[in-house]
Amino acid sequence: MNLDTAVFDVDGTLVDTNYHHALAWYRAFRRHRITLPVWRLHRAIGMGGDQLVRAVAGDEVEARWGDAVRAAWAEEFAPMLEEVQPFEGVAELLGEVRRRGFRVVLASSGKPEHVEHYLGLFDGKELADAWTTSEDVQRTKPAPDLLEAALRAVDGSAGVMIGDSVWDFRAAAALGAPGYAVRSGGFSVDELCAAGALDVFDSPAELLHQLDETLLSGSGQRVS
Q1: Cα–Cα distance between 141 and 161 in angstroms, integer?
Q2: pLDDT in tens, 13-66
Q3: What is the pTM of this model?
Q4: Under CATH, which architecture does the 3-16+85-213 domain have?
Q5: CA atoms of 66 and 23, how far apart (whole Å)
């Protein structure tokens, strides 16, 4: 494999949003008198909304209220957007991976306005070669569409996935792509490795310090 692209998940991997999302989904379901344990919602974060409602609440809820719950989630999440912060070492990690020859794509299926906000927190537009939003895919993770869109955006041959949830690595596995996990998604090391992660790091900063021990050590082939 000619690994030339580093594909970074954004929500939960580069910016600390997972618990905000879980609470927003909880409140969105409560609007329809559906009460789900927050821990169960948290375990589904990393899926997009097109997948999450059915996954946590079943086919009937998706059929009757799926679109309404997704709209309510957007309303509940909006006031929390200003609380979101990037994890330590994110900008340095992206810059170093790019310096080592890899094309860097920030792969998000989030709303365009959310992605714009996140990228502004760590100079993402300057550090990445491309980024994606919900407008670039029809299906979100665990479907592999997002990774495919990321590679297309930079004419990449093959990518390395960096994410925080089992959904990231199930999507990567569908394309035969290797990947590395950070623990900010709340999944255990065993779960992340079982889903396909080659190794698990506590944070982006730890991954940065151990890049030489990964497939991102410096063999990327950048486009001039």
Answers
A1: 13
A2: 999 999 999 999 999 999 999 999 999 999 999 988 899 999 999 999 999 999
A3: 0.92
A4: 3-Layer(aba) Sandwich (3.40)
A5: 17
